Amino acid sequence: MDIDRLRSLLPVTRSHIYMNTGSSGPCPTPTVEAVCEMQRWLSAEGPSGPNAWARMHDAEGRARQAVADVLGCQPAEIALTHSTSEGISIVLNGLGLGPGDEVIITDIEHDSVLVPVYHLCQRVGATWRMLMLSGGIDPVAALAEVISPRVRLVAVSHVAFCNGQMLPIPEMAAVAREAGVPLLVDGAQGPGHVPVNVKEMGVAFYAAPGQKWLLGPEGTGALYVSEEWRDRVTPAWLGWASHSGYDLLGNYSLKPDARRYEVGTRDPAALMGLAESVAVLRSIGLESIHARILALSDMLRDRLRQMPRVNLRSPSDGPARTGLVAFTVEGVQPPDVVRELYSRARVVCRSIPPPFGQVVRVSVNAFQTEEELGVLCECLAAL
Questions:
Q1: How far is Cα 365 from Cα 19, in angstroms, rounded to an integer?
Q2: For the chain, how are helix, strand and coil distributed in percent, rounded to 5?
């Protein structure tokens, strides 16, 4: 793959060692230009001018198709959202959970899964059960052991934000499906980072962001809802974008596809930007990107393992490893490591706070270079 071309499209690489795609990825220059062009057009034409609705509809269609292509599904199975968190809550609040029902989660989930599950169960009288995966147990065996007729949903991450562990989603989905239970995947760290094909994985729901590894604008995201589960997830909130018709007698009809989960107006400039970001990544090659991320992160893990005061906290081998690399430095608190890395070499990364084990987390993306990994390790050695 053409690394020089990719880096030329990301101005941040000229001044920073940007290793925080897992929080938000940098938008490529063509994405910024697409966003600005749409805003200029809307300003000149008027956002409610005669041509505006057609242009906005086109932006939605392009974004929906782009995400569907990345996830391996049909556009009709994609609801456009503003974030991964929004998609997760659409599913949680649409399944009609109540007393006696149970939701299975894990101890490596983001708070956008944990807190909504806690809140929903408290509100409706359901319960939750947590798989303790941080100790290194087999996720598939752990799920098979606890799934029961009470379970209404399994909600897990594709890649854990706190330590970079990739879960065996197809195998976990098979266990859930055997029990008649849908699997909801928090895909915040998935698309653009690791291979994703929702059909091959067999999941019922997959919530994804636009602004992380897909390098899209903030405020973009998507929710995949399989056709099998579409009529079993009731939209918890509705708006003009959700229906296909109504009258003054109380009658209405929802849109026949996943657009029923969309409520109102979206930013067409952001959607055009998301479509452009996906086009950039696809022009480079998603498979090549995935492979380079894994090769570079393996290189970094090897270097970190050789450093006497650095302790790796991510999977170091096997299929669970990803481009998210978590570690600690003996004698230095993770937030202090993050500040020092930025101060010394403008390395942008983050720390993971409690209730998880406190670690430094770097996101190794395809636009990283071996030289940047060397600078990171030199800074760590100097702490």
A1: 7
A2: 45, 15, 40
Query: 119 and 157 share a domain?
Result: yes
**In angstroms, rounded to a whole number, what is the distance separating the alpha carbons of residues 39 and 80?**
20
Whether residues 141 and 256 fall in one domain: yes
Same domain, 171 and 76: yes
By the 10 Å C-beta count (0-12 exposed, 13-18 middle, 19+ buried), 71 is classed as: buried
pLDDT tens string 325-369: 999 999 999 999 999 999 999 999 999 999 999 999 999 999 999
The pair of structure tokens assigned to 66 is: 């782009």
Q: How far is CA 294 from CA 181, 227, 298, 320, in A?
A: 32, 33, 6, 11
User: 251: domain range?
Assistant: 34-282
Q: Are residues 18 and 43 in the same domain?
A: no
Please report, as a single letter, which amino acid is at residue 327.
F
Token digits of residue 110: 């983001």
Same domain as 292, residue 166: no
Identity at 188, one-letter amino acid code: A
CA distance 196 to 87: 17
Pairwise CA distance, residues 239 & 237, whole Å: 7
Question: Per residue in 177-232, pLDDT tens?
Answer: 999 999 999 999 999 999 999 999 999 999 999 999 999 999 999 999 999 999 99
Give the phi and the psi of residue 223 in degrees, each rounded to 5: -125, 120
**Rg value, the chain, Cα:** 21
Tokens linked to 122: 């408290």
Q: How far apart are CA 364 and CA 322, in angstroms?
A: 9
Q: Which residues pair with 153 in a beta bridge?
A: 103
pTM, entire model: 0.97
Same domain as 86, residue 13? no
Give the residue among 42, 95, 33, 113 at the shortest CA–CA distance from 276: 33
Six token digits for residue 291: 């492979």
CATH number at residue 331: 3.90.1150.10
